[in-house]
Sequence to fold (697 residues):
Amino acid sequence: MFELIGIPPQALFGQLLIGLINGAFYAMLSLGLAVIFGLLNIINFTHGAQYMMGAFVAYLCLTHLGLGYWGALIVAPILVGAFGILLERTMLHRLYKLDHLYGLLLTFGIALIVEGFFRHLYGSSGLPYAIPAELRGGYNLGFMFLPTYRAWVVVASVIVCFGTWFVIERTRLGAYLRAATENPTLVQAFGINVPRMITLTYGFGVALAAFAGVMAAPIYQVSPLMGANLIIVVFAVVVIGGMGSIMGAIVTGFALGVVEGLTKVFYPEASNTVIFVIMAIVLTIKPAGLFGRTA
Amino acid sequence: MKLKQALLAGAASVLFAGGASAQISGDVVKLGILNDQSSLYADITGQGSVAAARMAVEDFGGTVNGKKIEIVFADHQNKPDVGSNVARQWYDRDGVDAIVDVPTSSVALAIAAVSKEKNKAFLNSGAASSDLTGKSCQTTTVHWTYDTIALSKGTGGAVVKAGGDSWYFLTADYAFGHALERDTGDVVKAAGGKVLGQVRHPLNTSDFSSFLLQAQASKAKVVGLANAGGDTINSIKQASEFGIVAGGQKLAGLLVFVNDIHALGLQTAQGLQLTEAFYWDQNDETRAFSTRFEAIMKKKPSMIQAGVYGVVLHYLKAIKEVNSDEGEKVVAQMKKMPANDFMTKNAVLREDGRLVRDMYLFEVKKPSESKGPWDYYKPIRTIPGNEAYRPLKDGGCPFVKG
Fold:
């Protein structure tokens, strides 16, 4: 059997697939960030906390209401999205005219408060959330054992990502949205309620984070720290993809998952820094990001 | 003229005050609990350790030789530089006399050096690295609750004995993980087993699937988890997802706390063997302590938190004897007295700073065996202290003679 750079091809395929699965999470989270930044110009640092809230809503639904995984996939995005809308209406919308930095500071502060609140209530070890019965077990692919749940994560993520991209880039609603960010006054003059559209867009971005949170609950612990651990990486993904570029966020999300997965084989100690190294290189060569347009 | 007088008076009063309180500095014994207050080790140390220290002070009577006992705490964020800065500030400016707990071995090794430099006692319950009483030992260090040697002899020894003679390690990439991997590897090799390889993951990783796949490919009989806290929880959870155990490999959690089992649930954790210095449901004394603790913290204590209680109590007893809070003096006295509390019975604090206590091998119950929340362990074996810990002469501690 031949070997590629010291590892057998079976292992390499396995690692590529694992990378893709992790990339699915990066893609879903960076997508929400990119939508919010691209259309609202807000750097949403609460994204990690909202992802964590999604997982917690799933946990609370299960333990207190007996509502299982599939119900939570619908309920959690709605509830957390509503929280996002409340946030946007009461605080964020006051900041649109100010520098990006204010939005960043506000959302970062809110993230710390939300995380501290959950840590106070539930501790830092996290809470168990079982994989739903229909998705237990897995397939033996020959080169690796693929858990059914992970396969589902990739499929669901691809559907959600490209669905979102399609709505924003290829439909009339998306066209309104993009127009409203370019020139809100003009679009308003055509009789479209721009502030409401912006609010709903933020709510949608937040709901995406919560959706990813529910998806993550059975794999990782439902823990107050789960978002904080991920958000910095996801920001790097968005920066590499190009701030605000939706396709960029999706493609870089998956690609960086793969790169990180391979690093875990060749030089595991660097697996949590490799993305930032790539970010530094991309920013030097192409400051607007891989898919970004320079204004 | 006036100024000069004032200065002289001031100098005299400083001298005088210095003379009067030569024994217990600042007329107060101040304990600084330094640990992880916000991240992956916060549940097993954190505020629970602060509560345990307060309980010890309360049981001691609140004062020692007429001097008040105070407790402060801080978050070291698992970073050696943050920890050292807090330690220097506490020692130099805030009059802290001893630093307590300090999980995360890399931080603990840094604090051990700072404490020695300032001649203050370092009472460690939280960190695991056996180097704290080996090549990095200090005359001011006390390593109280457990260490990587005891964990590897307990869990590692039991797994090898049950036929697990080839190992692959999943190791947290810092001082603690390296020490645990090394010490367990020694146990495995001494018993005639083999170490097939290891992969080192960054501290606080959330996805272990890639590392688990490498462990699976190694075909080792045992996957040894040389990590802790949230990292262990996620490794075990994802190992079950990827069918590691179903595929015939055995998981050995080398440092698992009761809080981790609580977080995992018995369904996932059942059958795991682990070594601890304390479990809340061992006897009437441990149950009584745990009930008191639970009334404050709303959860059972980890062995680290229980150990904080013990080491603080023993430290205060030593201060009472020598009437001083100088690090070397108090620690020397602590080594002269047998240690006794609800979880420690006539244990000896050795010359190198290692407390030699009995350790316990447990197995996690099946869901059907458990009577409810926190009823998780069944005892397998008591490991006598002399068997669990490294012999004094083998540690390579420079100040230990012959």
About this structure: The longest strand of chain B covers residues 67-75.
